[in-house]
Write a structure and sequence with these properties.
Cofactor: Zn(2+)
Shape: globular
Order of helices and strands: HEEEEEEEEEHEHEEEEHE
Bound molecules: 2,5-bis(fluoranyl)benzenesulfonamide, zinc ion
Organism: Mya arenaria
Main location: secreted
Strand content: 25-35%
Largest sheet: 13 strands, mixed
Family: Belongs to the alpha-carbonic anhydrase family.
Protein name: Carbonic anhydrase
Structural class: mainly beta
Number of strands: 15
Length: about 250
């Protein structure tokens, strides 16, 4: 987003100890063997029977109504329920992701947002708790079209104002938005990347990017908010790692 440098005034936590995104320095990430095997990360999503798209002023978001869950990996015994997914992207292919890998920025980053349904009663209750949220970060790179993303890229242009919503009568399986390899990821404790920047997110960032076509990326770049400003470049630059360690599940 355009004004991350001003966020510190209204949200002092912007300079906190566990802010996101970060630059993932691959050589410094520590291999963590106990997120393998029996407690490997696992998604159990139910396909949405209709797609609820929302222009929330700074991104395009799909509100989830089914009760899909994410478990395992760094999440211990808790079940995290899928709440929504949204994206961050740039005006051109060379920028747009929030996390970077050894300084490399991808064209876009998809976030699947989950809340800890084993411990809390709702997303709103969980959003401020240190173990409240888990977000899957998927890097997007230009290439072949992602068929499951077509329902969003074909319709997001109709959401011309902030707050605009629409329901598309088609099924969507969030599992098909994930990369084929969901075993290899980095994970660390961080925050929301937009205000209020709550430090409540266990981040899981997949190593393997997913491809979207040029047209699908252009559909995102053509999105405007109610002031007619493009939403593109709605990514926060990397925050300081401070005393954190990034874990990885692969050698
Ligand atoms: N970009 S994010 O996944 O950290 C995020 C998720 C939310 F639900 C709310 C605000 C956010 F910034
Ligand atoms: Zn996000």
């Amino acid at each position: 987003m355009k004004r991350p440098s001003t966020w510190g005034k209204d949200f002092p936590i912007a300079n906190g100890e566990r802010q996101s995104p970060i630059d993932i320095v691959t050589s410094a990430a520590e291999y963590d063997s106990d997120v393998q095997g029996s407690n490997a990360l696992s998604t159990n999503y139910t396909p949405e029977s209709e797609v609820k798209l929302v222009n929330n002023g700074h991104s395009i978001m799909c509100q989830i109504t089914k009760k899909g869950v994410l478990t395992g990996g760094p999440l211990g015994k808790d079940e995290y329920r899928l709440e929504q997914f949204h994206l961050h992207w740039g005006a051109e292919d060379g920028r747009g992701s929030e996390h970077t890998v050894d300084g490399k920025m991808y064209a876009s980053e998809l976030h699947l947002v989950h809340w800890n349904a084993s411990k809390y009663s709702s997303f709103a209750d969980a959003v401020q708790k240190p173990d409240g949220l888990a977000v899957l970060g998927i890097f997007i790179t230009p290439g072949v079209a992602c068929n499951q993303f077509k329902v969003i890229s074909d319709n997001c242009g109709k959401l011309k104002t902030s707050g605009a919503e629409m329901t598309v009568d088609t099924t969507l399986d969030p599992t098909l938005l994930l990369p084929s390899n969901t075993s290899d990821y980095w994970t660390y404790l961080g925050s929301l990347t937009t205000p209020p920047l709550f430090e409540s997110v266990t981040w899981i960032v997949f190593k393997e990017p997913v491809e979207y076509s040029k047209e699908q990326l252009l559909a995102l770049r053509n999105l405007v908010d109610s002031d007619g400003n493009h939403m593109q470049d709605n990514y926060r630059p990397p925050a300081a790692l401070k005393q954190r360690k990034v874990k990885k599940t692969f050698t």
